[in-house]
Amino acid sequence: MGVKVKASKIYLPKFGWMRFFNSRLIPDGFTIKAATIRKRQDGWYVSIRIEDKSIPDYVSKPLAEVNSVLGCDLGITKLVHLSDRYQIDNPKFSTNKKAKRTLKIRQKRVSKKVKGSKNRKKSANKLGRFHKKILDKRTAYQWGVANKIVSRKVDAIALEDLNISGMLKRCKVKVDENTGRFLKNGQSRKKGLNRAISDASWSELILKIEYLAAKQGKVVIKINPKHSSQQCRNCGHIDKSNRDGEKFICTQCGYHEHADIGAAKTIRDRGSARVRGDSAKLGVNHQNAQKVSPRTCVQTW
Ligand SMILES: [Zn+2]
Fold first, then answer.
1. Is-contact 1 12, C-beta < 8 A?
2. CA–CA dist 208, 72 (Å, integer)
3. Is 177 part of the annotated catalytic residue set?
4. Which NCBIfam families is this protein grouped with (predicted)?
5. What's the gap in Å between 228 CA and the centre of ligand 1?
6. pLDDT for 8-30, tens place per residue?
7. Most exposed: 113, 122, 157, 277, by fewest CB within 10 Å?
8. Is 84 a catalytic residue?
9. CA of 234 to the centre of ligand 1 (A)
């Protein structure tokens, strides 16, 4: 080992002391475990894995001790809807109008310059710095959001299992059997949606929630989100047309409420069902919450 950080200098084995831009402090109580160096568009970056030994590995409560569950529905218009009606905004750091425009301009500037030229490198650096800025903003925001969620007075946080919902999967290619031509499959519309989804970075947010939850001895329950936004909370009727934008109106019994808050409540109920152990009835995924070690986390400079 032997990685050391001192103000604006970093010591790396084999390299020795180097000047670097110390963009963030190592939080109290953490020690450096390992370092990786990576070259990006605008320079060299070092990631350092830090460990807090005072935090035991995986300290979450057994499910039997969970009394209250918070449901958490991740979205795009709002980043998070909680089952207690609390909502958290999605600033769309890379897909808002202004950022999209800046990205487009900077990308254009790169492609207009001669390949291999100094000027091209300069504009590429500028573009890279803008990407980095977006990333930093999003990361900082997500820590705040994760903290807000985990700080609510509950023992457990129920989230949808993104591996099951597979939101980011590509649409299948559709081919016309007679002509052999490709048919519209909604891919281009989906492309925009995928971009918005990756801008929301749910999986990174979930990792932060898991990390903070484990630190506070709370449990994260991952549930199967199947039909969570289409199923009526009053009569159980499942229908795509139950949902009309932000509103949920059951086509069978007329029950209505805010669609995303309803989805968050359904996620909460499926989490509670897991706690009670009657998961079969609700089609809840049987897998245990993914184990995370909150002891270590990665910081990138
Ligand atoms: Zn109904």
1. no
2. 14
3. no
4. guided_TnpB (NF040570)
5. 13
6. 788 888 888 888 777 767 777 77
7. 277
8. no
9. 5
Residue 121, amino acid: K
Tokens of 212: 């903070």
CB atoms closer than 10 angstroms to residue 188: 10
Task: Give the separation between CA 267 and CA 83, rounded to whole angstroms.
Answer: 8
| 82-134: pLDDT as tens digits | 999 999 999 999 999 999 999 999 999 999 999 999 999 999 999 999 999 99
Per-residue model confidence as pLDDT tens digits over 227-236: 888 899 999 9
C-beta separation of 87 from 79 below 8 A = no
Tokens 């484990």, residue located: 214
Ligand 1 center to 239 CA (angstroms): 10
Question: Which among 213, 194, 225 has a CA at the least distance from the CA of 69?
Answer: 213
* Catalytic residue flag (residue 73): yes
Q: Three-state SS across 15-66? A: CEEEECCCCCCCCCCEEEEEEEEEEECCEEEEEEEEEECCCCCCCCCCHHHC
97-112 and 118-150 are packed helices; what angle lies between their axes, rounded to 10 degrees? 160
Task: Return the DSSP state at 180.
Answer: -
**Whole-number Å distance between alpha carbons of 79 and 87:** 8
Q: Distance (Å, rounded) from C-alpha 243 to C-alpha 160?
A: 19
Q: Whose CA is closest to 110, among 126, 124, 99, 125?
A: 124
In the chain, how long is the greatest CA-to-CA distance? 71
Cβ pair 68, 219 in contact under 8 A: no
Find the catalytic residue in 155, 210, 260, 269: 260
